[in-house]
Recover the amino acids of this structure.
């Protein structure tokens, strides 16, 4: 078999393209995982906030300002007005994620 000057550059080119594809795929996967974690944290915090508000309402502890520890989350709420119709709440999960949300009990 004859050797030519085309085989080595072509092999290097194919290797380079393969490396680019693998690196790009890994980067996309890493970004996707980060977005999924953010979404999971948001919904977990929202759920814990809703459950903490239900527990507070049922135990008749609903007041202008309250702090409750629900599971592994710390929930701090302040009423936006005197009628206790809406609350500005800050929830901090055990993993450090913090969500600030205005909600109705």
């Amino acid at each position: 078999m004859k050797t030519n000057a085309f085989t080595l550059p072509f092999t290097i080119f194919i290797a380079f393209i393969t490396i680019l594809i693998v690196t790009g795929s890994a980067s996309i996967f890493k970004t996707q995982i980060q977005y999924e974690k953010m979404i999971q944290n948001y919904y977990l915090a929202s759920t814990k906030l809703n459950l903490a508000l239900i527990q507070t309402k049922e135990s008749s502890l609903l007041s202008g300002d309250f702090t409750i520890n629900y599971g592994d989350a710390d929930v701090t709420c302040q009423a936006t007005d005197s009628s206790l119709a809406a609350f500005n709440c800050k929830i901090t999960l055990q993993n450090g994620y913090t969500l600030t949300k205005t909600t109705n009990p």
Remarks:
- The radius of gyration is 26 Å.
- The CA atoms of residues 36 and 48 lie 18 Å apart.
